[in-house]
Write a structure and sequence with these properties.
Elements lengths: L2 H9 L5 E7 L1 H4 L8 E7 L8 E4 L5 E8 H5 L9 H5 L2 E4 L4 H9 L4 H5 L1 H20 L3 H22 L24 H13 L3 H17 L3 H5 L3 H8 L1
Parallel strand pairs: 2-4
Antiparallel strand pairs: 1-2, 1-5, 3-4
Helix pairs in contact: 7-8, 7-10, 9-10
Length: about 240
């Protein structure tokens, strides 16, 4: 039995359910043996029921969450960790088109999401600066933690500037190419990000910084760099 057929049968005669969204690994294409089924049910009325656990069609568990129709329509403005998962989900029960219409709105990030990309890049510069200084004074743990934070800021900022929702880091595979419209060499960027994730040593961090700072100056983002004072630039050049 297909998943949509199973959902339809499982819902039975529940007239309160207006639609069902499949999200998580089953929707993203990364499901493995025993992966849970993640469902969001849109229901009529002013209050949504609490979460439920169902037995899935393949013997696994289905984690079922609920939202009201109003809550679903407001989802593009109520952003959180769930946004990427929902935006990349797919309808498995949608007799009235409620899920499809909501997805159409949810998949386009608002202008404020893209605008925040500049702040994320500034956060990357700060974290990288701190990481390089920590490494040079022998604080390897501090350097690693700041480098990890910097990579998160950087990738979040780039995905925002590309006009797309930032993926979960454990689902990054398959989403790198969404950065191509920014004019970055995505293959080289990925290699340098992976190098920094392995070691926060100067060479790895500065190679990535040179690529990003050059790209920033070529794309009208140089003012973010110029706001930093002399010690920052001296450290990042040496």
């Amino acid at each position: 039995m297909s998943l949509p057929d199973w959902v339809h049968v499982r819902l039975g005669d529940r007239a309160d359910v207006l639609g069902a969204l499949l999200y998580g690994s089953r929707a993203l294409g990364g499901a493995g043996p025993g992966s849970d089924i993640d469902l969001l049910l849109i229901v009529a009325g002013e209050r949504a029921p609490g979460p439920e656990a169902w037995h899935g069609p393949d013997g696994g568990q289905a984690d079922v969450h609920f939202t009201t129709l109003t809550g679903w329509r407001e989802m593009p403005e109520r952003r959180g960790w769930w946004t990427f998962g929902y935006a990349n989900g797919r309808p498995v029960y949608d007799p009235g088109g409620v899920v499809a219409r909501g997805l159409e709105a949810l998949r386009v990030p608002p202008p404020s999401h893209r605008a925040a990309g500049r702040d994320m890049l500034d956060g990357y510069l700060n974290a990288t600066y701190r990481s390089v200084k920590a490494w040079r004074r022998g604080d390897e743990l501090g350097a690693r933690l700041q480098a990890t934070l910097g990579l998160s800021y950087l990738l979040d900022g780039l995905f925002r500037l590309a006009g797309t929702w930032t993926p979960y880091w454990d689902r990054l595979e398959g989403y790198w190419e969404r950065l191509a419209p920014l004019g970055l060499d995505v293959g080289a960027l990925r290699a340098e990000v992976e190098a920094v994730s392995r070691t926060p040593a100067d060479a790895a961090q500065l190679a990535l910084y040179r690529r990003i700072s050059g790209w920033m100056r070529a794309h009208d983002l140089g003012s973010i760099l110029d706001a930093w004072d002399g010690p920052f630039h001296n450290t990042m050049r040496s």
